[in-house]
């Protein structure tokens, strides 16, 4: 019995060391990839701004978008590692999410070729507030819009909505791309799984990261198929309170 227990302990120690080595390797790999990617993104932006005629302008824009997406994937990998290690930093506060969400949507749309996809914003008439980390909220919105963009047809539409629902603020990103099979919806945010719907969207790490960031801020996330006519990705976060101080006379 003691011999078998020692054998299992030794095997467990070996596995733990392999996991530690793999985590260190992934972290170093991400840093090594980011080093040449950063100047590549800068060069692609300069290239894209220098062409006004077709087909060179679209080609330069495609290079720019691909370089930015690759850099974003590397950054997501690093952030995912921080989440796994419990070292991610959150700066929670109460704020109106309309501006950060609008900024991210317009920034993504501005980087697309003309008439590629239209991003519409359905914003609440009455201000809503959210208790969250603004930087991480922007990151989640960017991941989900980029995910929708990847499956949207030319001339397609992506709708971004914000609404208050009880004690939470809900965000929805709806696309009209290929629907995710119902069997894949349970696994779309899980690591180490590559369902069909996930292969057509952003890298696995990005969707996993979005889930972890939302849950670390006290929210939940999910996806649903719209009768095979597109998909809606949604997440909610705790509602915040107005930071405006009203003077009582």
From TrEMBL:
Catalytic activity from the UniProt record: ATP + protein L-histidine = ADP + protein N-phospho-L-histidine
SUPFAM superfamilies: ATPase domain of HSP90 chaperone/DNA topoisomerase II/histidine kinase, Homodimeric domain of signal transducing histidine kinase
Domain of life of the native organism: Bacteria
Domain Histidine kinase per the UniProt entry, residue ranges: 28-241
UniProt entry keywords in alphabetical sequence: Kinase, Phosphoprotein, Transferase, Two-component regulatory system
One GO CC term on file: plasma membrane
Keyword Kinase: yes
Enzyme class: transferase
Pfam families according to UniProt: HATPase_c (PF02518), HisKA (PF00512)
UniProt GO MF annotations: histidine phosphotransfer kinase activity; phosphorelay sensor kinase activity
Enzyme nomenclature, EC number: 2.7.13.3
SMART domains, per the entry: HATPase_c (SM00387), HisKA (SM00388)
Keyword Kinase: yes
Protein's UniProt name: histidine kinase
């Amino acid at each position: 019995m003691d011999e078998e227990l020692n054998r299992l302990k030794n095997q467990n120690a070996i596995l733990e060391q392999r996991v530690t080595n793999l985590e260190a390797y992934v972290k170093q790999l991400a840093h090594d990839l980011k080093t040449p990617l950063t100047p590549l993104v800068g060069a692609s932006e300069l290239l894209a701004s220098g062409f006004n005629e077709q087909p060179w302008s679209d080609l330069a824009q495609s290079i720019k978008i691909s370089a930015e997406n690759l850099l974003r994937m590397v950054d997501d990998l690093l952030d995912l590692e921080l989440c796994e290690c419990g070292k991610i930093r959150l700066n929670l506060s109460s704020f109106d999410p309309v501006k950060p969400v609008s900024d991210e949507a317009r920034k993504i749309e501005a980087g697309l070729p003309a008439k590629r996809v239209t991003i519409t914003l359905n914003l609440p008439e009455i201000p809503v507030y959210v208790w969250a980390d603004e930087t991480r909220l922007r990151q989640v919105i960017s991941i989900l819009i980029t995910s929708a963009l990847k499956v949207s047809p030319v001339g397609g539409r992506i709708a971004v909505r914000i609404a208050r629902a009880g004690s939470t603020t809900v965000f929805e990103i709806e696309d009209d791309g290929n629907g995710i099979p119902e069997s894949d919806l349970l696994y779309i945010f899980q690591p180490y799984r590559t369902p069909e719907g996930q292969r057509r969207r952003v890298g696995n790490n990005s969707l996993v990261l979005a889930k972890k960031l939302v849950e670390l801020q006290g929210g939940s996330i999910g996806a649903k198929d719209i009768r095979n006519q597109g998909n809606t990705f949604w997440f909610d976060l705790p509602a915040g309170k107005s930071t405006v101080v009203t003077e009582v006379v």
